[in-house]
Amino acid sequence: MQDIKAIAQDIVAREGGYVDDPDDPGGATKYGVTLDTLQRLAMDLTGDDRIDKADVAAVSRTQAVDLYIRHYFDQPRIAALPEVLHPSVFDMYVNAGANAVRILQRLLVQMGYDLTVDGRIGRKTAAAAGAAAKIGRISLRDAYGVARRNYYFGIADRRPASRKYARTRKGGKGGWILRAESFVSPQYHLSDAEFQQRVATWG
User: What is the pTM of this model?
Assistant: First the structure.
C-alpha cells in the first residue's frame, strides 16, 4: 500500500511556493492551492472575514497536504482505481481537477471499455481501470502518463500563452511535460528531437 500522505507531500514540493502568474488561468497559487479553491472551501486562513490573495499566501505545507488528501484524493475516490495509477492521477487531479479522470476515461474508451466520460470515478470506471491494468503491451501507468502529456500539448496548441509551461525559453521540455513524464517509464519519454518536432508549429 502506497503512502498517500507521502504522495501528497511530493505534489506540494512540485507545486512550489507562492506564484501569481497573469498567464495562469488559476491565478494566485501557493503549493498549487488556488484562491478559487480556498473560496470554494470557505477557508479564511487570515481570519479577516474575507478570502483573498492574502489567504493564498498564508497556506502552509501541512494545510496543502491535508487539503489535497481530503478533496483531491479521498473525495474523487482515486483509491478505487488500481494502485499503480494513484500517484499520477492524484497529481493530475491537483493540477487539472476532474479532467484527470476524463483523461483516464477517454483512454479506457479507446481501449474498448464502455464508459461515459464524466470525470467521476464510479463503479464502471474503477472496474475498467482494474481490468486494463492487468493486460496490454504498455502498462496502464505509462499509457495514462502519455495521455496526460498529450493533454498538456493540446492545451498549449490551443492557447499560446500556456506554451511557456510546456516549453522552456531555451526550447526544451517545460514543466508540464517533465511532470507528466516523471510518471512514465523512460522508454516512453520523448527524445529531444521528437519533442522539437511536436512543438515545431508553435514558432
Answer: 0.91
Whose grid coordinates read 511536436?
198
For 172-194, b/e burial (b = at least 16 CB within 10 A) is ebbebbebbbebbeeeebbeeee
- For residue 113, the one-letter residue type is Y
Q: How far is Cα 1 from Cα 58, in angstroms, rounded to an integer?
A: 32
The residue assigned the cell 479521498 is: 74
Q: Are 140 and 134 in contact (CB under 8 A)?
A: no
Instruction: Name the phi and psi angles at 60, rounded to 5.
Output: -95, 165
What is the tens place of the pLDDT at every residue in 116-137?
A: 999 999 999 999 999 999 987 6
Whether residue 28 contacts residue 56, with contact meaning beta carbons closer than 8 Å, is answered with yes
